[in-house]
Design goal:
binds heme C
Length: 114
Amino acid sequence: MKQNNFFITTLVFFYFLGIAGFSFAAEKDSETGLIMEKGYELVKETCTVCHTAQLITQNRADRTGWLEMIRWMQDKQGLWELEPEIEKGILDYLSTNYGPLKSFRRPPLDVEWK
Ligand code: HEC
């Protein structure tokens, strides 16, 4: 019986650990999957008009990278001019919450350019 108690205690322990871990994780909007942090409404309003937010949540880039994607959509995909304030808010949000994952990147190639 002692063995069994230990097993149940361990189970309960990990169960609560799981709940704690879950509640500390950033909350995501159930509709779009966007992380609900400062600026997220702005992105939800502006960036889910033409495509789902999945294109955003599966992407990662630094501020310059996100700006390039916005410029590319403005150039080629009919995205309108964004108010400077709105663009700044969107870039703040994206670079903070969907910035590059440094630890998953391979080290740069050591290429000799000719
Ligand atoms: C006017 C329509 C429109 C709006 C508004 C729009 N996009 Fe897009 N976006 C597109 C189109 C079209 C594509 C290309 C989809 C495809 O390749 O299937 C795209 C692609 C993307 C991609 C994928 C780029 C890649 O390299 O694969 C990302 C990321 C993205 N959009 C982010 C955003 C963000 C952030 C916003 C808000 C600032 C936004 N989009 C608003 C039209 C739009």
